[in-house]
Amino acid sequence: QKEVEQNSGPLSVPEGAIASLNCTYSDRGSQSFFWYRQYSGKSPELIMSIYSNGDKEDGRFTAQLNKASQYVSLLIRDSQPSDSATYLCAVNYYGNNRLAFGKGNQVVVIP
Amino acid sequence: DGGITQSPKYLFRKEGQNVTLSCEQNLNHDAMYWYRQDPGQGLRLIYYSQIVNDFQKGDIAEGYSVSREKKESFPLTVTSAQKNPTAFYLCATTPTSGGNEQFFGPGTRLTVL
Known about the structure:
Chain A is an all-beta fold. Chain A is 0% helix and 53% strand. In chain A, the strands form two sheets. In chain A, strands 2, 4, 5, 9, 10 and 11 form a six-stranded mixed beta sheet that branches. Chain B is globular. At the A-B interface, strand 5 and strand 9 of A face strand 5 and strand 10 of B.
């Protein structure tokens, strides 16, 4: 069973601060890593994908990947109330395009 | 207008009834997936299909059935054998050439009365 762990509880951050989310995975052969944002009652929306070690920046979002340590993280800079959502980490199964999802981390941005 | 559509948005079912959830896409994506999401849980894979006329069981296929007769369509039937069907059901697709990313439809919320 492929496992993706997002262990942090709900994260409250003041508006304008940095929100940091972490995710660990069990399959050393995984090659594709994704972060999804899910607003309450809505479907997940892909916000970041990363395939190589290091950082990838897209606007206020930065994804960080460390395959040796088997973790991927997401930083949200200058957090806005509209960033309040649950963030899901997803990792592909080696050899096919199935994804394993973590349970998600809720982020609340306080104005 | 391209995208993934799921219908209905809300569905109410009496115990013992089979219901079919629709998922249609006009993105020309080959692979399609069905997930179930329960409160506090991650997404759990029910069935997936990589090509027309072929599909595989996911992690929680019991009590569900699917078909893939057309590339654009991947309907999910929730049968009376599914003991706890109340959940949020999500359909997703993957581009034919890409990095395994999945894109989701708006979902169907099923409630068993």
